[in-house]
Write a structure and sequence with these properties.
InterPro entries: Transglutaminase-like_Cys_pept
Strand order of the largest sheet: 1-6-2-3-4-5
Pfam family, one: Peptidase_C93
Number of helices: 3
Largest sheet: 6 strands, mixed
Helix content: 25-40%
Number of strands: 6
Length: 150
């Protein structure tokens, strides 16, 4: 499934920079872009996916939005919170990418893609389990690495 890396608009780039100023730990970059797939990694990914999917509705209800783009939808918040938790768990930021996808119903959606030694895995707020990219049923429009002030 080919995808394109996207360049962000000036407005979105500014949103990223403002986010970085507020959430400095989320701005780390890494040259490591593949993670060895282990039982421990599988457990961490599943735990983060489940936890964020469970707590995010309450966080959004209290208006503590996490999105980089103030006009983004809920799925961006889920993807960014999962990314942040995985970085805090020790995963390299370079292996974590936000993907813009189209659902089978034709809706725009965002997911977090983790590149592992066995392939790309998707953490999605619409799914309880972590899935292989080719099993999601999504059409991948764009993958982007979140980078700040590089």
């Amino acid at each position: 499934m080919p995808v394109r890396n996207v360049e962000f608009s000036e407005r979105t780039a500014l949103s990223y920079q403002l986010f970085c100023l507020q959430y400095g730990n989320e701005c780390r970059t890494s040259s490591r872009n593949v993670i060895a797939y282990t039982n421990k990694l599988r457990t961490v990914l599943a735990s983060v996916n489940r936890t964020v999917n469970r707590v995010m509705p309450d966080i959004r209800a209290s208006r503590e939005f996490l999105s980089l783009n103030p006009l983004s939808g809920a799925s961006d918040d889920y993807a960014m919170m999962k990314r942040g938790q995985l970085i805090r768990a020790g995963l390299p930021a370079g292996a974590l990418r936000v993907a813009s996808v189209t659902t089978p119903e034709g809706r725009s959606h965002s997911v977090l893609v983790v590149t592992t030694s066995t392939g790309e895995l998707v953490l999605d707020n619409r799914q309880a389990s972590v899935m292989k990219r080719n099993a999601t049923g999504y059409s991948f429009a764009a993958l982007s690495t979140v980078r700040f002030f590089d």
